Amino acid sequence: MLSPEGRLQASKQLPSLAWFPVMAVVALKLLVHLAARGSYGYFRDELYFLDCARHLQWGYVDDAPGIAVIFKGALLLGGSLPVLRTLAALGGAATVLMAALLARELGGKSFAQAFAGLCILAAPIFLAMDGILCVGSFEPLFWMGCALLALRIARTGDSRLWLGFGVVGGLGLLLKYTMALALVCFLAAFLLTSLRRELRKPVFWAGAGVALLLFLPALFWQVRHHFPLLTDMENIRREGKNVVLGPLGFLGQQVQLLNPLLLPVWATGLVSLLRRRETRAVGWFYLLMLGAMIALHGKNYYLAAAYPVLFAAGAVALEQGLQRWSWSRGKAWPRGVLGGAAGGLFLLLIPAMVPLLPPRRLLAYQRAIHLKPQRAEVNHHGPLDQILGDQFGWPEMAQEVARVYASLPPEERARTGIYAGNYGEAGAIDQFGPALGLPPAICAHQADSYWGLPPVEPVNLICLGCSREGLAPQFDSVTQVAVHHATWGMAEENRPIYLARGLHTPLRVLWPRITHWN
Question: Which of 65, 138, 257, 352 is placed for a possible disulfide with 125 were both Cys, Cβ 3.0 to 4.6 Å?
């Protein structure tokens, strides 16, 4: 461990944060997403998380409580689409800033700090994820925060920073349970490198205790509810919901999600991390996470939060190479060309990934630049990729249900509820329904299954996402009353709407049989 004087000297070795170029890149990221914040509509998961925020608790079937807290804040600000997308844009801008700080921690000067941010701007996955309010808008901040602290501990020997590592890790666990896997991989990376010496120090385990203490309420919730997360994961595996990729397929999609032209940057970053003793643990962290995601058949974007660290390392390695190579030493134009190229890639991708164009023109533009987003789930089909297609049709669905509901005689309407087959449909009814005079949705899917039953159970149901064959045995009659169709929406939502009258068995009795987590 370094003496206090040694730590101070190590701190002085860091370059200054290049405020002007870094904040210019941050502002660019922010402005692009703010320009599109009112386009298209609510994403399916945004509607679900708004419902979770209306029912705040310490856990959900498939999510940690942190995302619901963020959406609760959005609700307090009005819950409008621009509010949600502004929060997402702020998360994306913070990721760019954190990448610059990582580059600085690795010894990067102004070019490396700004170029790390430009690489994030030019990566399709971050353009897509930061366009909606989701866990992915904030998850990179926690992985990067842990990496930054690990790098600083290795550089300065200041073991007190493990307490901060524990805080970041614990808050990350409250945002997404995948953070548990990330922390395990960090621990394994420390054991594989010189940071293993830190495990002998009480402050390291104090940091681990802080993380556990922060996570305990969410862990207790899972225990109290018999670990619905594990049931959900097993159902997904058994039903084959997600696209399963082999090692080469998974790696190939990583390259596509991050922009093939940026592969040299993050690959160089990985090599540079592994070559240096004080940064090796972070390089091993990525490799261990990559192996874990392949082994566990994670979705192609589950590893996205690790790449800003590699971009930062690659930007620093590139900057140092330009300073070392004779043909570029002391010349500004190589940095200008590289920065301009990354900025150009960003500008090229904006119309393809950010919903500024009408859907038909966006598709035409994607075809023109030969961009084809990859599916992460087997049964999601539509003219647009899922992250855009799932933003269409929800207000219209609520309006169609409202027309059916309003057409019923008052005495029948009082005994009629709205049953949603999945959380997206339930979220649409709960978000748009109050203004249309609709009651809250009844839904047995995911976390909705915990609050789906109304105080007074209906005997008739307007059913979304259901089949006549599935409904007929439970009702006296089943009548198709409408057909929902959104041209640009997902195919699985373009289905008939049924009015089912005369429920044979009370919903509270049926509930355990119709509850489904996947």
Answer: 257
